C-alpha cells in the first residue's frame, strides 16, 4: 500500500441548497405580472362583447332567470316575435335583404369589372367613390333623398314635379334602393378581390373554342362564384341588420322592418325584453341562412384558379363610344349614390323654414347660425366629437392588443376564441348590441355588484367600443402580423425595456396603420345611430340623436345643417390629425409606416 493511498481523501464539496421558492418564486411572480394585463384585457372583452349579448339572447328562452317573466323555459318570446306586426317586419326585412343583395351584387360587380378590367377614364375617382360610400351612414343617404322628395321639400319649392318619385321613395322600392346603394361598396370589394386573382387565360380559352362574349361572361361568372356568393351574403346581412334606414325612411313610409321592431320592443313601455331578444335571434338566424346558402352553393367544388403561371388580366382600351357610355354610367351611379343625397342635405340646410308653413322658404345661412348659437343644437356636435375621440383612442389601443394576440405564436387557443368572438360581433346588428347593454347593465344583480353604468356616458362609450373593435382590429391585423418577435428581443439586447423597445421599434412601424384605424373609428362614431339611440344618457344626446329630434320637430333646416356641420367637423379633425402627423412625426416614422 503506497503512501499516496494512505493519505486521507479530500472532503467532498458541499452543495448549498437554494432557498426554496427563490428562483421559482421570482419566475412565477414575473409571470403573474405579465399575465395581469392580459387578464384585464380578457375581462374587458367579456364585459363588452360576450356578457351583454349572451344575457340578452338568453332572456328569450328563460325570462324568469332575469326577472322578466314567470317561466324558466319558454318560447313565448318567439311566439310574440313571429306573429302580428312583428312577423310582418321580419318578412319585410327578408324581402329588402334579398332584393338589395341581388341588385347590389349586379351593380357592384359591374363597377368592379369596369374599374379593374377596362381602361375607363377616371378609374381612381370611381374607386375612391366606392370607399367614400362605404363610410357614409345609411340614414344620411335616406335623409338626403327625403329632403328632396318630401311634401314641401326641395324639389317642391323649386317647382320640379316629383309625385311619382315620391311614391316610389316612400315604400318598399325606396327602402330597397337606399339599402342597395349602401351595399354596392361591399359587393364591389368582394367581387373586385376575386377579379384581381382571375387571369385572362380562361376567357381566351373560351374564345379559342368558338365561344362569344356571352360564353366568356358565363365562364368568368362561374369562376367568380365564391366572390359573388360572398357579396350576396355580406349585403344581405348588412341590409337585414341595418337600423339607419329602418329608423328614418322605412319608419316615415310606415314600412315595418325587424330592426325597428326590436327597437320598439325595448324603447316603448312596457319593455318587452323576451320579444326583443327573440327578434335578435331571428336576425342572427337570417345572417346564418345567408352563410349556409353560400356554403351549400360552393360545397364540393374547387375554384383554385390562382397559380404560379397565372397571367394578370390586362385592362382593355375602350372605343370612344364605349368609354363615353362607361363614364356616363359611372357618373350616373355615383351621382345617385352620393351626389343626390349630398345635394338634398346641403340644399335643405340652406332653405329657411323647410318642411313647415313658416319662414320665407328662401336660401339663407340662418340654419347654420342657429346650430352654432343654440346650445340645444350645438351641444350634441361637441358631445359626439369628444366621445368619438375617446372611443377611437380606446378602440385603437384594444385593437392593437387584439391584433397582436391573433398573430402571436403563443396561446393559439385563446387567439381562436378571440377570433370567434370578433366574427360573432361582426354578425350582430348594432341594435342588438345596444339592447344587450341596456338589459345586462340594468339588471338588479349588476346594481348589487356596485356596477352602476345604466344611462351613463361610460356605457355609451363601451357600446361604441364594442361595435368599433372588430373592424379596427382587422385594420391592424395585417401590419401587426408582419412584426417579428426578434425586433423586440433586439431592443432588449440594446438595453431598452419593454416600453422603450415598443416606442423605439414597434411604434414607428405601426404609426400609419394606427392612425388609419383611429380615423376610421372616429369618423364612424361621430354619426353612429343605433347604439346612440338606445344608450345615450338623459339630456346629453349625441349628434345623430340630435338630428333625429330636430327632424321630429319639423326643423328640417336645423337638422340638415347639423348633418353638414358634423360631417365637415369629422373630416376637419381627421385632416388635422394626419396633418400633425406629417409635420411633427420623424421622417423615418412616415417612411416605415408607409411600408408597413
Brief account:
It holds the Pfam family BPD_transp_1. One of its GO terms (cellular component) is plasma membrane. The protein is mainly α.
Polypeptide structure, described:
The chain is an all-alpha fold and 596 residues long. It has 2 domains: 90-255 and 293-300 and 316-349, MetI-like (MetI-like fold, Orthogonal Bundle); 359-596, Orthogonal Bundle (MetI-like fold), CATH 1.10.3720.10. It is 74% helix and 0% strand. The chain is built from 28 helices and no strands. The protein has helices at residues 3-6, 22-58, 76-81, 84-117, 123-135, 138-149, 154-157, 163-169, 172-196, 201-208, 213-223, 225-240, 244-252, 258-267, 273-298, 320-349, 366-373, 375-407, 412-427, 430-440, 444-448, 457-481, 485-493, 498-526, 530-535, 543-552, 556-584, 587-595. Helix 23 (485-493) crosses helix 24. It is globular. The N and C termini lie far apart (80 Å). The model is unreliable at 1-10 and 18-27 (pLDDT under 50).
Amino acid at each position: 500500500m503506497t503512501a499516496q493511498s494512505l493519505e486521507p481523501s479530500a472532503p467532498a464539496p458541499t452543495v448549498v441548497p437554494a432557498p426554496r421558492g427563490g428562483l421559482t418564486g421570482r419566475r412565477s411572480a414575473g409571470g403573474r405580472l405579465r399575465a395581469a394585463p392580459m387578464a384585464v384585457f380578457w375581462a374587458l372583452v367579456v364585459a363588452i362583447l360576450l356578457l351583454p349579448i349572451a344575457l340578452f339572447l338568453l332572456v328569450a328562452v328563460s325570462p324568469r332567470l332575469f326577472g322578466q317573466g314567470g317561466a324558466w323555459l319558454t318560447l313565448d318570446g318567439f311566439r310574440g316575435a313571429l306573429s302580428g306586426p312583428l312577423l310582418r317586419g321580419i318578412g319585410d326585412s327578408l324581402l329588402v335583404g334579398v332584393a338589395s343583395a341581388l341588385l347590389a351584387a349586379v351593380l357592384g360587380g359591374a363597377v368592379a369589372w369596369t374599374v379593374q378590367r377596362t381602361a375607363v377614364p377616371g378609374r381612381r375617382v370611381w374607386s375612391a367613390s366606392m370607399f367614400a360610400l362605404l363610410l357614409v351612414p345609411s340614414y344620411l343617404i335616406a335623409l338626403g333623398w327625403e329632403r328632396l322628395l318630401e311634401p314641401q321639400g326641395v324639389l317642391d319649392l323649386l317647382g320640379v314635379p316629383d309625385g311619382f318619385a315620391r311614391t316610389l321613395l316612400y315604400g318598399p322600392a325606396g327602402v330597397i334602393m337606399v339599402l342597395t346603394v349602401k351595399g354596392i361598396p361591399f359587393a364591389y370589394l368582394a367581387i373586385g378581390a376575386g377579379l384581381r386573382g382571375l387571369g385572362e387565360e380562361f376567357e381566351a380559352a373560351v374564345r379559342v373554342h368558338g365561344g362569344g362574349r356571352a360564353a366568356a361572361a358565363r365562364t368568368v361568372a362561374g369562376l367568380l362564384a365564391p366572390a359573388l356568393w360572398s357579396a350576396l351574403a355580406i349585403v344581405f346581412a348588412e341590409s337585414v341588420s341595418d337600423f339607419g334606414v329602418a329608423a328614418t325612411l322605412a319608419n316615415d313610409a310606415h314600412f315595418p322592418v325587424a330592426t325597428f321592431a326590436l327597437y320598439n320592443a325595448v324603447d316603448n313601455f312596457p319593455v318587452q325584453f323576451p320579444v326583443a331578444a327573440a327578434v335578435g335571434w331571428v336576425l342572427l338566424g337570417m345572417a346564418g341562412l345567408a352563410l349556409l346558402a353560400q356554403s351549400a352553393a360552393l360545397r364540393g367544388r374547387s375554384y383554385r384558379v390562382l397559380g404560379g403561371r397565372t397571367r394578370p388580366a390586362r385592362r382593355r382600351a375602350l372605343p370612344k363610344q364605349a368609354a363615353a357610355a362607361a363614364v356616363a354610367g359611372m357618373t350616373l351611379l355615383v351621382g345617385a349614390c352620393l351626389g343626390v343625397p349630398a345635394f338634398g342635405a346641403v340644399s335643405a340646410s340652406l332653405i329657411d323654414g323647410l318642411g313647415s308653413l313658416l319662414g320665407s322658404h328662401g336660401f339663407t345661412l340662418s340654419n347654420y347660425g342657429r346650430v352654432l348659437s343654440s346650445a340645444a343644437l350645438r351641444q350634441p356636435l361637441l358631445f359626439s366629437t369628444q366621445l368619438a375621440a375617446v372611443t377611437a383612442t380606446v378602440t385603437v389601443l384594444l385593437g392593437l392588443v387584439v391584433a397582436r394576440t391573433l398573430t402571436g405564436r403563443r396561446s393559439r387557443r385563446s387567439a381562436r376564441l378571440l377570433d370567434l368572438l370578433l366574427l360573432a360581433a361582426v354578425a350582430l346588428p348594432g341594435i342588438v348590441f345596444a339592447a344587450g347593454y341596456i338589459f345586462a347593465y340594468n339588471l338588479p344583480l349588476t346594481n348589487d355588484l356596485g356596477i352602476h353604468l345604466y344611462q351613463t356616458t361610460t356605457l355609451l362609450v363601451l357600446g361604441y367600443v364594442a361595435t368599433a373593435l372588430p373592424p379596427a382590429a382587422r385594420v391592424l391585423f395585417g401590419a401587426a402580423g408582419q412584426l417579428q418577435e426578434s425586433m423586440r428581443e433586439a431592443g432588449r439586447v440594446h438595453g431598452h425595456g419593454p416600453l422603450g423597445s415598443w416606442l423605439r421599434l414597434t411604434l414607428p412601424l405601426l404609426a400609419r396603420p394606427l392612425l388609419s384605424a383611429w380615423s376610421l373609428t372616429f369618423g364612424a362614431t361621430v354619426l353612429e345611430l343605433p347604439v346612440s339611440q338606445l344608450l345615450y344618457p338623459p339630456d346629453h344626446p349625441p349628434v345623430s340623436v340630435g338630428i333625429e329630434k330636430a327632424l321630429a320637430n319639423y326643423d328640417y333646416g336645423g337638422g340638415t345643417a347639423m348633418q353638414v356641420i358634423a360631417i365637415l367637423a369629422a373630416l376637419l379633425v381627421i385632416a388635422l390629425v394626419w396633418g400633425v402627423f406629417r409635420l411633427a412625426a420623424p421622417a423615418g416614422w412616415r417612411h416605415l409606416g408607409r411600408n408597413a
